[in-house]
Amino acid sequence: MSAEQGPSAGEYIGHHLTHLQNKHMGGIVDFTVFNMDSLFWAISLGVIGCLVMWLGANRATSGVPGRLQAAVELLVEMVDAQAKSIVHNAESRKFVSPLALTVFIWIFLMNAMDLLPVDLIPMIWEVVFTANGGDAHHAYMRVVPTADLSASMGLSVSILVISLYYCVKIKGLGGWLHELFTAPFGNHFLLYPFNFAMQMIEFIAKTVSHGMRLFGNMYAGELVFLLIALMGGAISMSFTGIALSIGHIIAGTFWAIFHILIITLQAFVFMMLTLVYVGQAHDHH
Asked: N or C terminus: which one in the chain shows less Cβ crowding within 10 Å?
């Protein structure tokens, strides 16, 4: 978004909340729209997270651990302790514990993109976009994948698929189908439709709430940062302009510090719910 256009507050926020999609890139596919910015940042941060963990494991020594090794060991022990308290099947934990660790680190990194200056990466992308013949007005770039509903729901649906896999693996296909029709109200043919309906509602509710909780918190945080950025855009030599500029610095600092807690907490909550849902798949009714 160029400075000459002098966007209003609504236009500024609307532009920053618009995704870079394949239709904005001149793609010929118009029946399926992908948020290319969410895909790019999610994949890139996933690779970075795996690289950091690999470096921590590769540099591990039996002597005095370095800071990276100590941090990785702390995370691994924390996740493993939570997994043992929720998923009691030792064989399942060989997959579930690394899954939970991956979920926590990946979501933390995606959430942490919210701490970057609001206009930094979009401004860099605008320069790249216009240098390749694009229109600066359409240089969209959102950098927080978890503030994208499709990304957050994609993560929660993935956890649902894993939970269903363990339902079948632990209980057997026949045992799981029997449970779908006999729990929670009992094994009676008149209750089968109600049992099945309740089971479906439970799966849908858990999946939707799992993704929506993460999305809602991160979207709200992103919106607050945009509102704070608008305060900084009102710089002038008037009393109001100076007050807004000072308020921008103070509010931005306090919100960023508080947001560190939010991004960590949301990653932890998503990880814990992942363990809970997979653990529930091991329970017999």
From this structure: C
What is the C-alpha separation between 273 and 284, in angstroms, rounded? 19
> Which H helix or E strand runs over 278?
helix 239-280
Range of the domain at 218: 3-280
pLDDT at 5 > cutoff 60 = no
**72 CB-side CA count, 13 A:** 20
Asked if the structure places residue 285 within a domain, the reply is no
∠31-34-39 over CA atoms, to 5°? Answer: 165
To the query of whether residue 142 is one of the catalytic residues in this protein, the response is: no
Q: Which of 8, 209, 236, 238 is catalytic?
A: 209
**CB contact at 8 A, 158 and 143:** no
The catalytic residue among 22, 150, 213, 245 is 213
